[in-house]
Amino acid sequence: MAQDVVKHCSLWIVFSFFYLSGLQMAVIMSIDGQPQPTIWKTLFYTFLYNALIGHLITKYEKLWPFLASIVISIFGVVGFGVYFDDKLAGYSNELIIGLVLSLPFATFLVKQLKSKSLENNA
């Protein structure tokens, strides 16, 4: 059991680096696409990206998708985005917190929608 958690966490940490690349592009595009950028619109647009990532997480991670989204989000945004790589270091703390919370929330919603869809089809 413990080996499974370590193996999965290692894969999630590697994936979080690639998640950061897409998230950084989504943040830049969402800010550049607004005449007067606001934090709420930026978080909404990046939430759409996170919903796609949440779908991929729930599709491929069968054991712990919500835990995977938490690890990917924390290591991607805080670990690689702020401390190791400084790609997200220039943004406000509110945006960083919103980005960290967005992926687990999106994954939870996608998982709920998928389970409701399976219930309705059965």
In brief:
The protein is mainly alpha-helical and 122 residues long. The chain contains 4 helices and no strands. It has one domain (1-111).
Would you write up a description of this structure?
- Keywords: Membrane, Transmembrane, Transmembrane helix.
- The chain crosses the membrane at residues 12-31, 37-57, 64-84, 90-110.
- With 122 residues, the chain is mainly α.
- It has one domain.
- Helix content is 84%, strand content 0%.
- The protein is built from 4 helices and no strands.
- It has helices at 2-32, 39-60, 65-84, 93-121.
Task: Tell me the layout of helices and strands.
Blueprint: H1 2-32, H2 39-60, H3 65-84, H4 93-121
Instruction: Based on Cα principal axes, name the global outline.
Output: flat
Question: Cα-atom Rg, whole angstroms?
Answer: 15 Å
- N-to-C SSE string, H for helix and E for strand: HHHH
Distance between the termini: 32 Å
- What is the percent of helical residues? over 70%
Q: Which band does the percent of strand residues land in?
A: under 5%
Low-confidence residue ranges: none
Output the structural class. Answer: mainly alpha
Features:
mainly alpha
